[in-house]
Amino acid sequence: MVTENSSLGQLADLIRRPLVTEKATLLLENNQYTFEVSPRATKPEIKAAIEELFDVKVTGVSTANPPRKKRRVGRFEGFRSSYKRAVVTLAEGDTIPLFPDL
38-69 pLDDT, tens per residue? Predict the structure, then answer.
């Protein structure tokens, strides 16, 4: 649960990076943005972090935990780091500039 003394730095640590995939690009038409977030982040925390960082109104958050992928380095086998994907729906008229003008 998001507490009132949650600092902006703690909220910023929950959001790792925006995901730019073919599916995520198609979701932009519906005012939905996809982010990679910390696996321990909850929906209320993700909503608070997006609203604070980008100054927008979030109307919905959907999360998914994709399965871990196996990776090999020589004869050693392991797994890639796990992550959580969050699809955030914004209120009408709000946008997040994923590619700011340089």
Answer: 999 999 999 999 999 999 999 999 999 999 89
The CATH superfamily label for domain 8-90 reads: RRM (RNA recognition motif) domain (3.30.70.330)
Q: What angle do CA 15, 12, 40 make, to 5 degrees?
A: 50
CA distances 42 to 26, 35, 37, 71, 85, Å, are 25, 13, 10, 28, 11
CA distances from residue 43 to 64, 74, 82, 96, 98 in whole angstroms, order as listed = 11, 39, 17, 19, 21
Among residues 88, 85, 81, 9, which one has the least CA distance to residue 41?
Answer: 85
The pTM assigned to this predicted structure is 0.82
